[in-house]
Amino acid sequence: MGTSLLSLLLVFLSFVELCRGSTIGVCYGRNADDLPTPDKVAQLIQVHQIKYVRIYDSNVQVLKAFANTGVELMIGIPNSDLLYFSQFQSNADTWMKNSILPYYPMTKITYITVGAEITESPANISELVVPAMVNVLNALKKVGLHKKIKVSSTHSLGVLFRSFPPSAGAFSSKFASFLKPMLEFMVENQSPFMIDIYPYYAYRDSPSNVSLDYALFSSTSSEVIDPNTGLVYTNMFDAQLDAIFFALMALNFRTLKIMVTETGWPSKGSPREKAANPDNAQTYNTNLIRHVINDTGTPAKPGEEIDVYIFSLFNENRKPGLESERNWGMFYPDQTSVYSLDLTGKGNVDMVTGANITSSNGGGWWCIASSSASQAVLQNGLDWACGPGNVDCSAVQPSQPCFQPNTLVSHASFVFNSYFQQNGATDVACSFGGAGVKVNKNPSYDQCLYMTGNKTTIANSTATKATSDAYRGIPTWSTTQVLSVVFLSLSLLIARVGV
Question: I need a labelling partner for 9 at 20 to 30 A (CA). Which of 27, 58, 217, 307 fits?
């Protein structure tokens, strides 16, 4: 009986994992001197319900900040450390002991990238990558984590000798000495092939050959037909991704899963980078997210699940190069949004009309809490807005005009709207991980006056600013309650199958 129950549980969990679908993550680069502290970044990521984050090292403060958040973290070993990791197994073992084990599993590390875009590196480090990967994997095996944490390395599209048409995709022969053993390593250990894809650069560098609509996933884009396969492409992202697939297939590695570890669009550029603006950045990332979460796949692999990481969370003011290099972020360092972006790909729904809201019109819109949102999500959003979000939450304290009705939904609605109005009344300022919805009917009542685009203030609001701790007494879903629901579901499943 016990064995049967355990087997059923494992099958159930495996089924859940298999049905996960495509995922959207975000790259958290830190090449800047004005970014918020890691703990505030972790809070921002939780508020926006981002579940997958890539960092480029194993910074202790970042690892600590993401403890117990449930966020899956992809950490990195920089190119500058490849020699150290490739030389001796003991070096990788020491790093594992000091940089991973103290924080795992509280911090949910799922991938380790060994080196990044090594073919773009000016130093000849390509021969160091595979030995370093092997040593890191061996270190994981010694502590029993090799099945839970996957080891790979990221690549730029420069790893290809040819990318068009997609069916002719081929790796450059000059990388063969390290690429073949790397691919064999990935197959043996079920690690994904990681690629950074940037249609922006293809358009910027060759606007006469690549249309802007094609680069932006625009519905008005003209079709591009692969003459060898007859496959029809409506966007550059799919064409570049399939070029990688065909290149892998040419080397007999067609079963390798491909993961996009960077893609995005800059919101600002130098005078020659006219396509780098907030509208195009919003369009690209919005269309990308919808394309991915719908499990559309690509023309060569329709319905294929694709895990994609958007670059980047913040603008990074210390990055070298053209102006665009410092302006890939979805957020400014002060945590306000650069442009409106719904990371769920579903848009916010107007509870009054049921319409899908996509405009960023301020003044005529308010943001309230969704009545269907879980207590935990509402609580998380409320805590963040009253803390790092810098919202004055005094109006929802006892004896203040918005305290009644004393419910989490009511309090969250007022606080969410205040944050929304203070941050440009954009869609992203009302996301709160899907808990916020925009409405065009003023939710003010009695003496509780909701802020609008012209900054209406709250009557009789004289209490001191509340902190998020004031809400700790409101019941939220505990881990025990969640587990109870899970095991209740399992019990019902077991009863049905007669175990």
Answer: 307
d(CA 287, CA 274): 20
Residue 331 vs residues 45, 293, 315, 327: alpha-carbon distances, Å:
11, 22, 7, 10
DSSP string of 113-157, one letter each residue: EEEESGGG-SS--HHHHHHHHHHHHHHHHHTT-TTTSEEEEEEEG
Per-residue pLDDT, 472: 34
For residue range 439-463, list pLDDT tens digits in order. Answer: 878 888 888 888 886 544 333 333 3
CA atoms within 13 A on the CB side of 476: 17
- In this structure, the dihedral spanned by the alpha carbons of residues 120, 32, 310 and 229, taken in order and rounded to 10 degrees, is -20
Q: What are the φ and ψ backbone dihedral angles of 272, each rounded to 5 degrees?
A: -80, -10
Mean pLDDT across the chain, nearest whole number?
83
Active-site residue, from 72, 117, 316, 325? 117
- Report yes or no: 263 and 311 within 8 Å, Cβ to Cβ: yes
How far from the centroid of its chain's Cα atoms is residue 326's Cα? 19
State residue 248 phi and psi, 5-degree precision.
-65, -40
* The pLDDT value given to residue 436: 86
Query: What six digits make up the tokens of 264?
Result: 């995005």
Asked if residues 56 and 78 have their Cβ atoms less than 8 Å apart, the reply is yes
pLDDT tens profile 461-485:
333 333 344 443 333 333 333 344 3
Q: Six-digit token pair at 470?
A: 């004031």
Is the distance from CB of 218 to CB of 287 less than 8 angstroms?
Answer: yes
d(CA 425, CA 429): 6
Q: What are phi and psi of 246, to 5 degrees?
A: -65, -35
Confidence of residue 435 (pLDDT cuts 50, 70, 90): confident
* Catalytic position from the list 72, 262, 316, 325: 262
Q: How far apart are CA 416 and CA 403, in angstroms?
A: 15
Partners of 368 in beta bridges: 437
- Please state the length of the chain: 499
Is 315 in contact with 338 (CB distance < 8 Å)? yes
| CA atoms of 444 and 442, how far apart (whole Å) | 6
Contact 307, 23 (CB under 8 A): yes
Active-site residue 117, yes or no?
yes
The Cα 246–Cα 80 span in angstroms is 31
For residue 484, the SS3 value is helix
DSSP state of 485: H
Token pair, residue 5, equals 């129950």
Residues 9-30 have a mean pLDDT of 67
pLDDT of residue 499: 43
User: Side-chain half-sphere of 426: how many Cα atoms within 13 Å?
Assistant: 15
CA 489 vs CA 9, 81, 247, 349, 483: distances in Å: 11, 47, 44, 29, 10
pLDDT tens digits along 290-322: 999 888 899 999 988 999 999 999 999 999 999
